[in-house]
Amino acid sequence: MTRPNLAIIVAVMINVVAVAQTPTARTSWPIREAPAEWRSTISRADVLIVSMQDSLLRQLHNKLAQGGSALAFGSCHVDTTDLTYRIARAEGIAAGVTSDRLRDPTNKPKGWAAGIVAAHTGRKALDVKGFAVDLGDRIGVLRPMVQTKTCASCHGTLDELSPTVRRLIAERYPHDRATGIVEGEIRGWFWVEMPKPTR
Q1: Which of 56-60's residues contact partners 24+ apart within 8 Å by CB, and which partners?
Q2: Residue 31 to residue 22: CA distance in whole angstroms
Q3: 135 DSSP 8-state letter
Q4: Domain residue spans in the chain?
Q5: Global confidence as pTM
Q6: What tens digit of pLDDT does each residue of 106-120 get?
Q7: Alpha carbon distance 82, 59 (integer Å)
């Protein structure tokens, strides 16, 4: 084999490897425009998201009542992570929470969700209903988490954070980006990955 032919073969092989390693573009739809055959799966994902949200809010309100924002701050991440994994395991699916303004880097957006999350930074939650994403054999569902008064004691503007919470954030999360969120904005996202319906 001549050197020019070998160079061409090597160049082609490098391009094939590069293409194989490029993240797959995913097709996504606003929830209301998702394929009709996905409706029941999206509805099931929504039930799980409502369950996660209700459990999270119930735990958060209990912790706030028991010990204020410092106690809620200390348990929110652990409780949220534990809760989402429990629900996901029980249902045999994947689920969690994410945001473009992370406090905990382990909650970074999944690859399929990252572009959607980034594109909606700072948007009002009421303007964004959610998205369905084609993941091949699964469907990814994203629903926005709205910043409320309850969330403000740990995620609000600096004047809404107590000195104790500011100190805890600085100690535990020195690279925190999860504050300064205004009421009504998207604070984060609930996500669920569900198997596609069989025909």
Answers
A1: 56/80, 56/83, 57/150, 59/83, 60/150
A2: 26
A3: -
A4: 38-195
A5: 0.80
A6: 889 999 999 999 999
A7: 12
